[in-house]
Write a structure and sequence with these properties.
The complex is a heterodimer of chains A (497) and B (102). Chain A is mainly α and 497 residues long. Chain A contains 19 helices and two strands. In chain A, strands 1-2 form a two-stranded antiparallel sheet. The radius of gyration of chain A is 22 Å and the shape is globular. With 102 residues, chain B is mainly alpha-helical. Chain B has a single domain, classed as Helix Hairpins (Orthogonal Bundle). Chain B has three helices and no strands. The longest helix of chain B is centred in the C-terminal third of the chain and has 31 residues. Classes of the chains: A mainly alpha (497), B mainly alpha (102). At the A-B interface, helix 5, helix 6 and helix 9 of A face helix 1, helix 2 and helix 3 of B.
Chain lengths: 497, 102
């Protein structure tokens, strides 16, 4: 049956269309104020999010079995729209001072968001790969956007070389899985994997490991994390926040859909590798974070640690049954939501501070509680949320996530994750200590942050507290999002191309 | 007809050469060429599988077309970034571009 439903693409048509319009705008009106594209992008993201909100609760619908629109896609669509919205507003004054033309920058933000949505929506490997590359290409350019800044170019070069290397590995893994199953659709892969005879075991394991390595690179799981700190440090500050929210969310959107829909049947072949990745990632991320002096690198390593916690869920999908897998995936979506809000709050505050002082080291934050109490409070709240202290988002989401991921085979991993949370508290407290216990340096007196960034940081901080006190609202949304994960595609799905 | 194993062995060898190149070369352009080698191995795999598994369906061949296209875009982008780095630093050697560490 030929099912071509173009209506499921409408929100991304809006996003991609406005991306092109914004890039074109500067072409025709080169004299416009340089922060106008930022506000236009925020508007476009808002329109994108509103269009996406109409899809909440609609029946799953797909385009020839390639792209599926369901609550899962909608969840990530709204997440992408909000990340782009906040990042665009954050970038406005930052980019105005550093580049002559920034319209491409804002266009790429929107396109990267579309990449995330289709990574979540893909039910077929070619589609998933193209969306992954769409996202990665946008990020390569965004990281290197400060052309005169040699750190930015260096970060971008490292990112693209390792990114290209990792997509080659991912593709080789995909080609092997394609060879074993003669299909690239997730559902047919699952059917074929269930039916295969034992003599292809070796090939399947190699395929899984390569795919894991490829996606692991994208989410910066250890031992494939080496690009992350460099890319984070060299990138423009708002892009560092964008990287640590959007690219992580995208990686896990793909991870969860792919591993539940296609690879769940063969869980014994890959789950040990995921458990190992999770353990290595959280230990390495948290231990190396302790000795950082640059804030951006600290956030990079702490986000690597967070990826380790999130990977516990993927391992749980492998070790548990469908019931547990679904609960764990809902909890993962909840945790990603909380993590995104905390990270964006942190970066809104850091950008406001950086615009004023140009400091981005931990020591540079000295005395912030005196010079700007609001920003200090926002930074404290989001760091506490990362560490998982009660009343902040990180506590509730992490608790629910570890609880639902606990199975017999994984007790050790969950225990390790809890120990790591304690370690992470140490280096977050070191940052907070600088802000509250030291005098401001260089005669810095009390200042006011720009109203926009201050308001943004304040609202996001309230969001962190809200999720921490009342996680049920977001959890319900996440739970409805994962409803369709384990269902086969509707019979209308044709065999991929 | 050449057996499938031969194609797979060839592509595995080419892929390994590519991996070796990425790890051993220090010039950004040569690393890119090694990545291209890996991607060509992937295309070879796809086309061999497509021809041997089910000649009536062309999924593998289409995937190979996509791989080639995306690889071309990737190289274009990467070379632009290499040139940018060269303007800033007068080097395209990845060991010398090591201001960012730990």
């Amino acid at each position: 049956m030929d099912q071509r439903d173009y209506t499921i693409f409408i929100p991304e048509f809006i996003a991609a269309g406005s991306a092109l319009a914004i890039i074109g705008l500067e072409l025709f009106f080169p004299k416009i104020r340089r922060d106008i594209p930022a506000y236009l992008t925020a508007l476009a993201a808002l329109a994108w999010g509103i269009a996406g909100a109409f899809y909440i609760g609609k029946d799953p619908n797909n385009f020839q079995g390639l792209v599926q629109s369901d609550n899962y896609t909608t969840f990530f669509r709204l997440l992408a729209a909000s990340i782009v919205f906040v990042t665009a507003l954050m970038s406005a004054s930052y980019m105005r001072e550093r580049t002559k033309t920034a319209a491409e920058y804002y266009g790429l933000l929107l396109l990267a968001g579309c990449g995330l949505v289709y990574m979540a929506a893909a039910r077929e490997l070619i589609t998933a790969y193209i969306s992954l590359e769409l996202l990665s290409f946008c990020l390569y350019i965004l990281v290197g956007f400060l052309k005169r800044d040699s750190l930015s170019s260096e970060a971008s070069l490292k990112y693209i070389l390792l990114g290209a290397f990792s997509s080659a590995m991912l593709l080789y893994g995909i080609s092997i899985i394609y060879g074993v199953t003669n299909s690239t659709g997730y559902d047919q892969i699952a059917v074929q994997l269930a039916q295969r005879s034992g003599d292809t075991d070796g090939a399947v394991i190699v395929g899984f490991v390569l795919i894991l390595a490829g996606v692991g690179f994208k989410v910066s799981a250890a031992p494939f994390h080496m690009w992350a700190p460099d890319a984070y440090e060299g990138a423009p500050l708002p892009i560092t926040g964008f990287l640590s929210t959007l690219s992580k969310a995208a990686g896990f959107a793909l991870f969860v859909r792919l591993f539940t829909a296609a690879f769940q049947v063969d869980a014994p072949e890959w789950r040990w590798a995921v458990a190992f990745l999770a353990a290595a990632t959280m230990v390495i991320g948290n231990l190396i974070a302790i000795q950082q002096s640059s804030l951006k690198r600290l956030v990079a390593y702490s986000s690597i640690g967070q990826v380790g916690y999130m990977l516990v869920v993927i391992a749980a999908i492998g070790y548990g049954d469908q019931e547990l897998g679904r609960n764990a995936s809902s909890a993962l979506l909840l945790h990603i939501g909380g993590y995104v809000v905390s990270t964006l709050a942190l970066f809104a505050a850091l950008t406001a501070y950086y615009n004023r002082t140009g400091k981005d080291t931990i020591v540079g934050l000295r005395g912030l509680a005196e010079t700007q109490p609001l920003l200090a409070m926002v930074i404290t709240v989001s760091l506490f949320s990362f560490a998982g202290l009660p009343f902040f988002a990180g506590f509730a989401t992490k608790l629910i996530m570890f609880q639902s991921a606990t199975t017999d085979g994984l007790l050790w991993l969950v225990g390790l994750a809890v120990v790591n949370s304690f370690i992470s508290l140490y280096y977050y407290l070191m940052v907070i200590r600088q802000m509250y216990l030291f005098e401001p340096e260089g005669g810095l007196t009390r200042f006011r942050p720009s109203p926009l960034l201050g308001a943004l940081a304040g609202v996001l901080m309230l969001g962190v507290v809200f999720i921490g006190v009342y996680p049920t609202a977001l959890y319900k949304a996440a739970d409805r999002a994962t409803e369709t994960l384990y269902q086969q595609a509707p019979t209308g799905a044709v065999q991929a191309p | 007809m050449v057996p499938l194993e031969n194609y797979l062995a060839l592509s595995a060898i080419v892929f390994s050469l590519g991996v070796y190149g990425v790890l051993a070369r220090r010039n950004a352009v040569l690393i890119l060429m090694s990545v291209e080698l890996m991607l060509n191995a992937v295309s070879m795999n796809f086309i061999a599988f497509a021809a041997y598994l089910d000649p009536t369906r062309v999924t593998g061949a289409i995937f190979a077309v996509f791989v080639i296209t995306v690889a071309a875009a990737e190289v274009g982008l990467a070379l632009a970034i290499v040139i940018r780095l060269y303007r800033n630093r007068q080097t395209s050697n990845v060991d010398e571009a090591a201001t960012l560490k730990w």
